[in-house]
Structure formats: C-alpha cells, structure tokens
Amino acid sequence: MKTLALLICASLQIASCSSSQNKKKTEKETTPETYANTITASELKTMLYTYASDDFEGRKTGEPGQKKAIEFIKSNYQSNNIPSPIAPDDYFQDIPGSYFGNNIKDSENVIAYIKGSEKPDEVIIISAHLDHIGVSGNGDINNGADDDGSGTVAILEIAEAFKAAEKEGHGPKRTVVFLHVTGEEIGLYGSRYYSDEDPIFPLENTVANLNIDMIGRVDPKHEASGKNYLYLIGSDKLSKELHTISEYVNKKHFNLEFDYTYNDDNDPNRFYYRSDHYNFAKNNIPVIFYFNGTHADYHKPSDTPDKINYEFLETRAKLIFHTAWELANREERIKLDQ
Description:
Elements: H1 2-29, H2 32-36, H3 41-51, H4 64-79, E1 92-95, H5 97-100, E2 107-114, E3 119-129, H6 145-167, E4 174-181, H7 189-197, E5 206-212, H8 220-223, E6 229-233, H9 240-253, E7 257-259, H10 278-281, E8 287-291, H11 310-329
GO molecular function: metalloexopeptidase activity
C-alpha cells in the first residue's frame, strides 16, 4: 500500500508539473512578441514592391493609380478577414472632389478595424497616408516607396498581427483602427476630412493616434552609425504619459535610437504640423508621429522600393505594434496633461 501511495503521489506531481509547464507554454505563446513576429521583412518587401510599382502611377489623389492603391489595401483586409467599421465590405470613406478644390477628383480614405474585447468604445488609431505625388511633367513616375508606401505596408502587417492575436482569443481590449488617408500630399485633406467632417469613431473616445509617415529609409544623419533609429514627433506634446509608455516599450523590446530633434517647438521644419497626426492633435488627441527623416530621393522618382531597408522597416513596424498593443490593453486609457 505504501508503494502504491508513493506511485500515486509521484504521478500527481508529474501531472502537476506537466500542467504547470503547459500553462507556462500557453502564457509564452500569447505574449505580444508572438504576434509581433508575424511582421516580417519579406512580407513587407513583397507588398511594397507592388504598392510602389509603376502600375500605381504615383498614387496621386483622385487619379487611377490612387484607385488601384485603395483596392490593394482593401483586398489585404478582406483576405485577412479584418472588417470595415463603415459597412460590410465597404472600406472606403468617400470624399467629394469639391472638398479638395483645385480640380481634384473624388477620393477615398480606407478604414478597417478590430473591435475591442473589453472597452470597444475606446479607440487607438494607427494611420498612414496612401497617396503620393503622381507622375512628373516629363513622364517619370514618383513611386513613393518610402513616402508613404512604407507606412502603408507597415499598417497592413500590424493589422495582421492584431488579427492573429484575436484569432487565438487575445484580441485588444480597446478597438484598434487602421486608417489609410488620402490627400496628405496636397494638404492633409484625408485626415482633416476624418477629424472635421466624418469621424467614424467619436473623437472624444479616441485615446491616441500613432501616425506613420516614412519609416523605410535612413537619412544622412544616421547613415554612419548603422544603428536603427526613428524620429519621434509629438509624443510629449499632449500627454507625458504617452511619451513615458513609448519610451518604456522601446527600451523593453528594441532599444532603437529615438531622435527628438524634430520634436523641438522651434524646429524650422515644423514637421509636427506637416503630417496627418496633426488633425488629431488639434483635437486634443495624444499623438506620435514616426518618421525616418528626409533623404535625397524625397518627392523624386528615385524613391523606389529597392532602396528600402527592410530589416529596419520590420523592426520599426514591430515597435509601433508593441506600442499600440500597450495602449490598447492597459487598464486605464492614457490621460491628457492638465
């Protein structure tokens, strides 16, 4: 009997150990790193070589190439079963040409989302502009691989990562919105239309905007170091808490060099006012603008996908995913500074 009792005890210990190991394994498998690792340089490259190809004719607002761009974005969301908040299979927020002026044709923002599991009315918006400057007078196509093809494909990969989490029962607590805006190159029109005319999600419920505009290249200032970096603009303008979270996420997962040169209120470039995050910031929504700086190919036909640093792009997209994950899953929404 004593031997039997010892065998039963040992068996229970093994079962308990196995259960504990399985629990630890499950916990490991459901960390954000698991889903961040679905963001890969190879997938980013494949998408960008299409999105910034000559077929898209420089994606000028209202023109045929821009229409191809929105269909490309839509098809990616459909193939990954990531829905639209507008209506089933209607991913386009239509903007009439009269809104733009200057003989611009009708255009569209593209919007998809993953509904929050616990706080669905609170929203994190990740944005990038889908347009570029089109074809030069001499017929050269401005492909806009970095500006802002890099931001566009980064959002598509980030959305896939959140969807992978949702499929396994670990969707974000807050709603995460993937917003591709048009008309940035002619005056931030698409984001202004969303914020001023037709916010699909109420602005008062919008916790933060993470805006991605050019994250695929290396500017001259950082070429020599060979180290991955990003310029961050706006992270501390409205919420010091957002800035603290951003720094924490970076140090925990990546330790990229964060360069705040362009965040200076006296910076002559005034980048804080020159990308789509500003239309959220002006409505007291905390923002971060992620940016790799300008380079010799900025707004030229030579901004092509072969010049993108895809390893850097992968890591930068993962950083933004982790930041969005933290904002979407923390217990309390971040607060505005008093």
